[in-house]
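Q: I'm building a small set of examples for a reading group on sequence design. Run inverse folding on the following structure and report the sequence directly after it, with nothing in between.
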């Protein structure tokens, strides 16, 4: 039996449609709240909803909200946005990365994590299997004690290193994946440590065809990308619209290099839109509409100029590949 688990219930893979595979819709990360970094607080449901409506009006049908427990999810607000707009939402169980874990655990999360002062203290105190049980509960019952289940499991590592606690959560998420068959997603800080993550996942017996590696465009290295693609994993180019990191030409050429080598079925595209200044209706950024409205036409034009079928590739990146990536296979 194959299905995709969403905030609106389980659906068939073919029902998913045009999908952004890595976004953040409403979140208040405890770490950034403590740092008083307002830009990283997506804390207005109605403004976020307006961007989601922009996405829908351009043909968008589904969004993967990649916000894990340690990044300040607002599960009910995001579910409401999905219901009110008609956009399918996939939520995320699991963890992010260790530098966030010195933040205090919010009171509503302590209802499911226990009375630990910080995420680091909680992860340190629990065994790998206990953390896996927490993730399994979030997939099979609901996120943060709700009845709204996650549709993927996530782990993350830092820049050019994997801390002991990050390895612990990676192993926990891998074991939760085996139990639930939920798809896996990896946060790679600036696109680093993907190969090292792969080695750890293999030691846990994970078939890498069930994982997407995030932030691949933050490390625009075609040789590195091919190494990951050879494993069967999906590569998420989820920094679209962020010119401060690289021009779109760099991202497009990295994607087309993979296509030329035969890996078109392993590519996802999204924006990881996680700041007020990225959102149109918070701070007049490019917004969720930019990929569908401007990036896709540009990609098609460049791909066609280089002898590819741009429209066919877009169908793979936004429809076919997400439908396969986010499917539970039981």
């Amino acid at each position: 039996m194959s299905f995709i688990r969403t905030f609106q219930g389980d659906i068939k893979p073919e029902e998913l449609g045009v999908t952004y595979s890595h976004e953040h819709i409403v979140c208040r990360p405890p770490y950034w709240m403590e740092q008083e970094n307002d830009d990283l607080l997506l804390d207005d449901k109605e403004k976020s909803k307006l961007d989601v409506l922009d996405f829908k009006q351009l043909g968008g049908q589904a969004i993967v909200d990649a916000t894990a427990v340690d990044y300040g999810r607002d599960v009910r607000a995001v579910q409401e946005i999905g219901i009110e707009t008609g956009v399918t939402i996939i939520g995320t169980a699991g963890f992010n990365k260790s530098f966030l874990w010195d933040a205090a655990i919010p009171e509503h999360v302590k209802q499911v994590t226990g009375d630990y002062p910080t995420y680091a203290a909680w992860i340190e105190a629990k065994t790998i299997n206990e953390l896996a049980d927490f993730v399994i509960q979030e997939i099979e019952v609901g996120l943060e004690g709700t009845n709204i289940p996650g549709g993927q499991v996530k782990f993350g590592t830092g820049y050019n290193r994997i801390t002991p606690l990050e390895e612990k959560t990676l192993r926990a998420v891998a074991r939760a994946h085996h139990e639930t068959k939920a798809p896996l997603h990896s946060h790679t800080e600036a696109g680093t440590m993907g190969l090292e993550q792969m080695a750890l996942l293999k030691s846990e017996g994970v078939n890498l065809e069930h994982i997407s590696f995030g932030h691949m465009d933050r490390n625009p290295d075609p040789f590195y990308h091919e190494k990951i693609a050879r494993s069967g994993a999906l590569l998420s180019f989820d920094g679209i619209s962020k010119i401060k990191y690289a021009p779109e030409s760099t991202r497009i050429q990295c994607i087309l290099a993979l296509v030329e080598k035969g890996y078109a079925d392993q590519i996802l595209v999204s924006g990881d839109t996680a700041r007020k200044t990225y959102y149109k209706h918070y701070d007049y950024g490019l917004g969720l509409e930019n990929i569908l409205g401007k990036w896709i036409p540009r990609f098609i034009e460049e791909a066609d100029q280089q002898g590819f079928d741009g429209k066919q590739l877009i169908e793979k990146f936004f429809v076919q590949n997400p439908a396969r990536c986010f499917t539970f296979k039981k």
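The chain has one domain: 2-329.
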